[in-house]
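Progress note, sequence design subtask.
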C-alpha cells in the first residue's frame, strides 16, 4: 500500500553500517528522514549511537542513486525496463552454463544486504545454476577469525553478548581500533573501564584512543601477534597459572599444544615482536589475576598471511586459562559490516550451506536436495579471491556482484579491475554506479535498508528485523525481489510472498535457526543463534561444552615463520583501517553532506621520526608506491604512530588509495587478503 506522504512515520530499523547492530526508530515524512532515534528497548545499543547511525543516511535520497536498470551499449549504458534487463541476464546465464558448465558462473553476496537476501543468492548459485561459487565480503575481513574459532571451539561467532563483555574483569583488545570502528561497543568498554574497574590491555601498532585509555599498551612489530600471544600462553602454563580443571574437563590436545609452544620463549618473543619480557609478563599476570577475561580482535589480526593462525592462538590462550562458557569470558571477533555475520551464517560461502553445514556432509546436502528438488554440486566452490584468479585462468566467465564495490575494496585493485575486463558477462547490483559497476554489462538498481524488510545479524549473533520506512526509490527493488525474478526466469518459481517465508525455509533447513521466525522478532525483539525449536536463544555460548561430538574444545598447535617485514628498499609499513566518520572507503557515507564536509579526503598519518627522516611536513603531498601501484595523499604527522609505521585510512572520497598498494598475498588458510602487509616507498612531491 502507498504510504501517506504528509504524516510522520516511525519505523524500527537497524543501522546499515557496523556490526554492533544498533537499532533505531526512523522518523520519516515521505522520503524525508527527520531523525534516527535510538530507543531504550534497542537490544544492542539502548539509547546510544554513533555519528554514522545517527546522521549518515544521505545515501538514501542521494541524486547518485540508480533508479532504473542499465545495459551496456559500447562505452555507455542505456536505461532499460526491468524485463529487458532480467531476460538479458538469464539468457546469458543459460548460454554460459550450457557452453562452459555451471562452475563458469560466480556470485558475490553483500554484507549490507539482509540475511534472507544472502540466503537467496546462494540458493541461485546452488539450486538454480548448480555451482558452489558463492562468497561474501567476510573473505576480506573475518574469515580467519571464523576459521580460528571453528577449529578450536566450534562456532565462528562472538562467545557472548556485549553485556558479557561488560561483565569481564579484563578486556584485551588486539588489532582493533574499537573506538572508531565499533563506537557503541567501545563506549560500553570505556564505561566498564572507567566506572566499574574493568582492566584494559590494548595491543596495536597505533596508540589510538582505546590504547591511550588502556592500563597497559603493547606495541608489537607488524605481523607478529601470534608470537607474543603464544609466548604469554606458554609463560602462563610454565608458571602453572593455567586452568587445569577446565582443561581436564573440557579441552582436548593439551599436550600437543604445549609441545608446539616450545619455541615461544619470552626471549624469542621479545626479539621477534619488540615487546619487552617485562611487558609480556605483565600481560600474563593480568590474565592470571582476572577471573574473567575476554579478548576482542579485528582486522589488525585477521588481514595477515597468518590471520587464521593468530585467531587460533587467541582462542588457545582463552582455552588454557578457562575463559570460555561464563559471562565475562570468551572470544569476540568484532564483525565489520552490519550483516557480515549473517551473510556467512545464511550460506553465501563456497564450502558451507546455510548454518555452516558443510557441503562435504552428505546428510546436510540431501536435506537441501529434498527441499529444493535438485541434485546439488558437492565440488567446493571458488571464494572471492579464487574467482578473480579464475577469471585470469579462463575458468570463470560470468560474475554477479551484489552490493560490493570490489573494484575499490578488494586488494590490488589494478589487478581486480583488469580481471573484470576479461569477463564474458558481468552483472552488478548496487545503489550507485560504483567503480565496479562501471565495468558491468548490466547494472541493476537495488534498494537500501530503509526501503525494505528483512533481518540483519550483528556481531553478537543477534538477529534483528528491519521494516520498510519508505517505498523503494524510482524503479529500484530490494535484492530479494530481484533474485526471485531471476530464479523464476530460470525455471524456479520460489513463490515467496515476503522475506518472512524465506526465513521460515531457512529455519526448517538450518538447525541453528530452528526456532527463528518473524513473529519472534517483532519490533525490538531479537534472537541470538543458535535458537532451538522452542525459540530459546543463546546469548552466551559454550555453557554446556563445545559443539564437537565429545563436547570438548580442541587446542590447536601453533607455529610461526617470519613472513613479513619492511626491507631496505621500502620506507614505510602502511597500516590501514576505518575512521569514525566514514564507513570503509566511504561510498555510502560520502553521500551525507555534513560528513563529507567534515572529512572530505583521506590523509596518511606518519610518525615524527619518519617525517624528519624523509623531509615531510604537516600537509605535504606524498606519493606512496610499491610493485602493485601508487597513490598520492597528504601527510598528517601523528603521535599515534611510531618509527616506520604509517596509517592510511580507507576512506578517500568514495575511492580507496590503499588498495592500489595492497597485493595478491592472502591468509594461507582462508584466502583473506593480507591488507595489513603493505610495504611502500614514498616520494615527497612538494618538498619545502
Ligand atoms: Fe551503532 Fe555501528 Fe551504526 Fe555506529 S555504525 S550507530 S556503532 S551500528
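Output:
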Amino acid at each position: 500500500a502507498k504510504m501517506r506522504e504528509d504524516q510522520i512515520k516511525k519505523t524500527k530499523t537497524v543501522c546499515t553500517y557496523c556490526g554492533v547492530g544498533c537499532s533505531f526508530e526512523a522518523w520519516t515524512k515521505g522520503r524525508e528522514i527527520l531523525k534516527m532515534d535510538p530507543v531504550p528497548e534497542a537490544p544492542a545499543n539502548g539509547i546510544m549511537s554513533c555519528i554514522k547511525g545517527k546522521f549518515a543516511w544521505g545515501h538514501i535520497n542521494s541524486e547518485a542513486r540508480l533508479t532504473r536498470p542499465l545495459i551496456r551499449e559500447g562505452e555507455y549504458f542505456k536505461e532499460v525496463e526491468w524485463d529487458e534487463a532480467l531476460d538479458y541476464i538469464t539468457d546469458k546465464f543459460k548460454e554460459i552454463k550450457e557452453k562452459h558448465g555451471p562452475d563458469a558462473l560466480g556470485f558475490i553476496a553483500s554484507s549490507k544486504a539482509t540475511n534472507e537476501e544472502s540466503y537467496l543468492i546462494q540458493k541461485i548459485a546452488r539450486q538454480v545454476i548448480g555451482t558452489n561459487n558463492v562468497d561474501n565480503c567476510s573473505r576480506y575481513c573475518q574469515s580467519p577469525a571464523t576459521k580460528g574459532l571453528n577449529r578450536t571451539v566450534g562456532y565462528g561467532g562472538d562467545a557472548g553478548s556485549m553485556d558479557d563483555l561488560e561483565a569481564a574483569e579484563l578486556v584485551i583488545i588486539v588489532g582493533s581500533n574499537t573506538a572508531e570502528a565499533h563506537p557503541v561497543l567501545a563506549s560500553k568498554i570505556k564505561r566498564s573501564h572507567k566506572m566499574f574497574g574493568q582492566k584494559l590491555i590494548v595491543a596495536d601498532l597505533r596508540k589510538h584512543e582505546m590504547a591511550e585509555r588502556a592500563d597497559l599498551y603493547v606495541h608489537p612489530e607488524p605481523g607478529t601477534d601470534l608470537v607474543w600471544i603464544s609466548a604469554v600462553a606458554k609463560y602462563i602454563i610454565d608458571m602453572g597459572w593455567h586452568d587445569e580443571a577446565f582443561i581436564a574437563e573440557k579441552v582436548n590436545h593439551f599436550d600437543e599444544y604445549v609441545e608446539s609452544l616450545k619455541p615461544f620463549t619470552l626471549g624469542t618473543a621479545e626479539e621477534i615482536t619488540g615487546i619487552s619480557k617485562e611487558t609480556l609478563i605483565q600481560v600474563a599476570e593480568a590474565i592470571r589475576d582476572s577471573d574473567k577475561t575476554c579478548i576482542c580482535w579485528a582486522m589488525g589480526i585477521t588481514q595477515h598471511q597468518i590471520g587464521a593462525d593468530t585467531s587460533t592462538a587467541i582462542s588457545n590462550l582463552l582455552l588454557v586459562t578457562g575463559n570460555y562458557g561464563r559471562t565475562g569470558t570468551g572470544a569476540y571477533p568484532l564483525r565489520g559490516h552490519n550483516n557480515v555475520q549473517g551473510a556467512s551464517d545464511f550460506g553465501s560461502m563456497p564450502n558451507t550451506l546455510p548454518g555452516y553445514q558443510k557441503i562435504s556432509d552428505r546428510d546436510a546436502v540431501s536435506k537441501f536436495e529434498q527441499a529444493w528438488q535438485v541434485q546439488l554440486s558437492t565440488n567446493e566452490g571458488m571464494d572471492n579471491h579464487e574467482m578473480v584468479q579464475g577469471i585470469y585462468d579462463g575458468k570463470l566467465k560470468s560474475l554477479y556482484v551484489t552490493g560490493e564495490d570490489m573494484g575499490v575494496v578488494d586488494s590490488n585493485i589494478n589487478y581486480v579491475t583488469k580481471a573484470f575486463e576479461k569477463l564474458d558477462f558481468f552483472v552488478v547490483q548496487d545503489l550507485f554506479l560504483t567503480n565496479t559497476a562501471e565495468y558491468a554489462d548490466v547494472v541493476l538498481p537495488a534498494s537500501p535498508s530503509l526501503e525494505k524488510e528483512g533481518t540483519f545479524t550483528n556481531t553478537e549473533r543477534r538477529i534483528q528485523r528491519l521494516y520498510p520506512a519508505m517505498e523503494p526509490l524510482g524503479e529500484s527493488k530490494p535484492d530479494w525481489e530481484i533474485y526471485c525474478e531471476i530464479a523464476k526466469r530460470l525455471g524456479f518459481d520460489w513463490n515467496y510472498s515476503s522475506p518472512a517465508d524465506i526465513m521460515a525455509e531457512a529455519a526448517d533447513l538450518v538447525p541453528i535457526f530452528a526456532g527463528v521466525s518473524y513473529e519472534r522478532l517483532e519490533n525490538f525483539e531479537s534472537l541470538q543463534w543458535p535458537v532451538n525449536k522452542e525459540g530459546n536463544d543463546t546469548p552466551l555460548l559454550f555453557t554446556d561444552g563445545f559443539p564437537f561430538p565429545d563436547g570438548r574444545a580442541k587446542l590447536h598447535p601453533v607455529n610461526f615463520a617470519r613472513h613479513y617485514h619492511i626491507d631496505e628498499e621500502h620506507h614505510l609499513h602502511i597500516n590501514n583501517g576505518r575512521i569514525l566518520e566514514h564507513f570503509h572507503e566511504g561510498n555510502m557515507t560520502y553521500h551525507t553532506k555534513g560528513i563529507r564536509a567534515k572529512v572530505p579526503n583521506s590523509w596518511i598519518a606518519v610518525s615524527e621520526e619518519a617525517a624528519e627522516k624523509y623531509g615531510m611536513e604537516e600537509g605535504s603531498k606524498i606519493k606512496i608506491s610499491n610493485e602493485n601501484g601508487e597513490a598520492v595523499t597528504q601527510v598528517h604527522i601523528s603521535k599515534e604512530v611510531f618509527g616506520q609505521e604509517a596509517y592510511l585510512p580507507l576512506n578517500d572520497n568514495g575511492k580507496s588509495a590503499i588498495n592500489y598498494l595492497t597485493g595478491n598475498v592472502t591468509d594461507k588458510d582462508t584466502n583473506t587478503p593480507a591488507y595489513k602487509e603493505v610495504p611502500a616507498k614514498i616520494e615527497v612531491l612538494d618538498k619545502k
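The domain at 70-136+353-458+482-523 is CATH 3.40.50.740 (Rossmann fold). Work on this subtask will continue into the next period as scheduled.
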